[in-house]
Amino acid sequence: MDPLFAVVATVAVVTAALVVTRRNPVYSAVWMLVCFLSMAVSFLILQAPFLAAIHVIVYTGAILVLFVFVIMLLNLRGDELGEEYPLAVRWSVAGMCLGLFVLLASPVIGDASLHVPLPTVGADYGSVQSVGRLLFTTYGLPFELVSLLIVVAMFGAMILAKKKLWA
User: Fold this and answer.
1) Cα separation, 149 vs 92, whole angstroms
2) How far does CA 132 lie from the centroid of its chain?
3) Neighbours of 15 (CB within 10 A)
4) Could you tell me the pTM of the whole model?
5) What is the pLDDT of residues 98-157, one digit of tens each?
6) What are the CA-CA distances from residue 39 to residues 32, 48, 91, 165 (Å)?
7) CA–CA separation, 56 vs 62, rounded Å?
8) Count of H-run helices and E-run strands, the chain
9) What angle do the packed helices 64-74 and 25-45 form, to 10 degrees?
10) Among 31, 63, 99, 106, which is disulfide-ready with 18 (CB 3.0 to 4.6 Å)?
């Protein structure tokens, strides 16, 4: 494994954990930014510069900005964030998550027959043409469903914010 990829993957995993463990949503958004950028770097390591650029533009530039917009629109104060769970509950949930990870990863790590070699890819792997061809043929419907989901989430956030303003 490439040492640079290991560093980037570690940064992505650690920052993803920080996203879900921070109490302040603004800090979570900052850690999500670092996580998204580390994922873009991993695309660059995999020699897919187009996917890295699209990842930065779509996720970091659009989705994260939408999240920050909703966070600022809701303008939650400290008392509105809710109470934290006791430390024992948080550690037990973390232990269950770690156990689930070990349970799911153990067949892959332990059995060498599950390690499928990567397929040989053509020279146009990760290019605009190959990504566009897949996006508009094989993955056209999932792409449209994700865009619909994002629009519904945006409308839901606006309705929740309006309801809070009226109450």
Assistant:
1) 32
2) 22
3) 19
4) 0.63
5) 899 888 888 767 665 655 565 666 777 777 888 888 888 888 888 899 889 988 988 887
6) 10, 12, 27, 37
7) 9
8) 7, 0
9) 180
10) 31
